């Protein structure tokens, strides 16, 4: 009995039992009458994300100092040559996209399936897999499914942006656009997804704004010939 109590307490703490159906509250919850304040706060968040990502994606920013060297190292290891982000930007974009594609359509699919398994009393039913997602209550299983769906929602926007950058960038171009792509993937995989799973909604929301801003910064660098 004591062991069962411990398990029940642990499950309740992370809200992974199918019986937990009431979501919590957030600092970003707004009443229906906030039709002026809510758009203003949302717009302010998006504008601040654009400014921050413009700084981080610059050739001397965080992306160039920490993320693009990782991509260059991976290129040298996987292609067994001297390829770097600077001298082979198209190959760098392909590698980054392959990693993101694996994360979205393989790793997060497994996450979603496990969420369906945990969230349904009958377990996972492969005959009607999408039915498993219906009526799953608030809690970790629901967030596992939602994380996968959210990544699937944003990936097409990344794919279009990456394709446009790959066709426009040259080895002599500054690294702003590739830095922006790398920052987008980092934000979505390393910050947004864990925050979603752990129910840290403020971090989840703002990291999503920053990830979208990163794509806009990458495209704008092409338009202004700063790619």
From TrEMBL:
Keyword annotations of the record: Membrane, Transmembrane, Transmembrane helix
UniProt key word Membrane: yes
Annotated TM spans: 35-58, 92-111, 205-223
Protein name (database record): Uncharacterized protein
Species of provenance: Mycena venus
